[in-house]
Specification:
Blueprint (H helix, E strand, L loop, with lengths): L2 E3 L7 E3 L7 E3 L3 E6 L7 E5 L27 E5 L8 E6 L3 E4 L3 E7 L2 E4 L5 E4 L1 E2 L8 E3 L6 E2 L3 E6 L9 E4 L3 E7 L3 E4 L5 E4 L2 E2 L7 E3 L7 E2 L3 E6 L3 E4 L3 E5 L3 E3 L4 E4 L2 E2 L10 H5 L2 E2 L3 E3 L6 E4 L3 E4 L5 E2 L4 E4 H31 L1
Antiparallel strand pairs: 1-3, 2-4, 4-5, 6-7, 7-9, 8-11, 9-10, 12-14, 13-15, 15-17, 16-19, 17-18, 20-22, 21-23, 23-25, 24-27, 25-26, 28-29, 30-32, 31-34, 32-33
Protein name: Complement component receptor 1-like protein
Organism: Peromyscus maniculatus bairdii
Subcellular location: Membrane
Length: 348
Amino acid sequence: VGQCTDPPWFSFASRLNKTDESSFPIGTSLMYECRPGYFKRQFSIICQQNSDWTSAEDICIRKPCETPKDPENGIVHVHTDIRFGSSINYTCNPGYRLIGSSSAVCVISDQNVAWDNETPICQIISCKDPPSIANGDLLTTSEDYHYGTVVTYRCRSDARGKKLFNLVGEASLHCTSNEEKVGVWSGPPPQCIELKKCTPPHVENAFIVSENKSLFSLRDIVEFKCQPGFSMEGASSVQCHDLNKWEPELPICFKEVICSLPQDMSGVQKELKMKEYYYGNNVTLECEDGYTLEGSSQSQCQSDASWDPPLAKCVSRTNISLIAGIVFGVIFILLVIVCYWLIRKYKK
């Protein structure tokens, strides 16, 4: 009673008068000095009548680092402030990559504070020379293809300007970046294809079962087959038409979805449980003898392997009879009670 315990450790200040005492009488004063990183200052805390020490909060003030500057073609982000212990981040504008550290912390430096990393550099992103194409060339060329540059391809013609090739693909590409680090072109270059020819068609998760060629002639037919585990939607055969068009529309190979009936479903006919159902298949549930179906008798297999509407249940008729008996029993008891009450009331 009438004493203060040893004061807490302060991250911002150190005690000047060292002592091994663990308790201090009322009125005791202990001297502190603000640590490096804070403006140098001495202060004291005093043991009060309520056995608490006076507060030391906000006495030591953190020193500020120099105001950081935006890197050229970039931005500095100050999250809280620029005082001791605070951190900042740097980002570059689109089309520039950051060279150096993307962050800095205000730390102790000699008798003062400073940022622990220098301001980074934002370097413009460039792409390699655009790829050349057979039977075609670029409309314009440059020594440097920096971020945002657009290049356009064209197919060669004869001396009279007569068209010799069809341009297949995107005629123009632009220089972009991969995660703001490496310059890349926005897509593959186009192709210059002989007139009345088609490039090989591509279907994801499928392979060509007919003869494969580097170029197909008009009216050539290509036949596809899906990879194992995939199902085809659309025509399996397509034909080459003018302007590098395949008709009808290329098919799609989608992953097979298999739905099944839960093995713990009681009362459902066993042969239904043994089957596999694919996306779009319907199942008509039938119960074994002694069970009654509750819910919709038909459900359809969905793309996420679920059933819509949810699968019905086969409920034992014994359970139904038991429930019905309990319900009728309760109703009967209630009727007896009501009749008894009415008879007593009538006699009165």
